[in-house]
Design a protein that fits this description.
3% helix
């Protein structure tokens, strides 16, 4: 079951890619058939406050497939799969703004979780395809804006190879 969210920045869409900056990724093999993936960046959120706290859940859908090219080649006709075993994630406000006089202004990243922290089973995950982060963000003051957040995801999993999907010629 997919966790609930109010806003989305999806790296797989052109609009989502425009809202993600300073993206960096690493993948590297570890001992005992494991591998690690690191994804970092800045997301342009532009969440405007209201007279109290405007609280929203933001889903960052990150394309981790680009990190696979940093791993050794899989066996011929196979692709890598990296089932998540352990991970850590963090996020923080990176740019805030208040248009006029600040009156009880505030900006926050209250929580930062992965889809697996929120109940999606790890057997449904692949650290070499998509990583979803869910951030509870908030802004107060009617002219306060949470412009950007920075994020960092690190995951480790067991590296296995699977048959490459058949692609029909058109």
């Amino acid at each position: 079951m997919e966790p609930n969210y109010d806003l989305e920045i999806n790296e797989f869409s052109p609009e989502g890619r425009r809202r993600l900056r300073s993206l960096h990724w690493m993948a590297y093999p570890l001992p005992n058939g494991r591998a690690a993936v690191d994804l970092t960046g800045v997301a342009l959120v532009d969440l405007v406050g209201d007279s109290t706290w405007n609280r929203q859940t933001l889903r960052l859908r990150l394309n981790s497939l680009k990190a696979v090219r940093l791993l050794p080649e899989p066996p011929n006709g196979r692709i890598w799969h990296l089932r998540p075993e352990m991970w850590s994630v963090s996020a923080a406000p990176a740019a805030v703004f208040n248009r006029n006089t600040a009156k009880n202004a505030g900006w926050a990243v209250d929580t930062c979780n992965t889809q697996w922290d929120l109940g999606v089973t790890t057997s449904d995950g692949d650290l070499l395809h998509t990583v979803d982060l869910y951030l509870d963000v908030a802004t107060s003051d009617t002219d306060g804006i949470l412009h950007r957040i920075s994020f960092d995801f690190r995951g480790v999993g067991r590296l296995t190879d699977r048959a490459a999907p058949d692609i029909e010629a058109r």
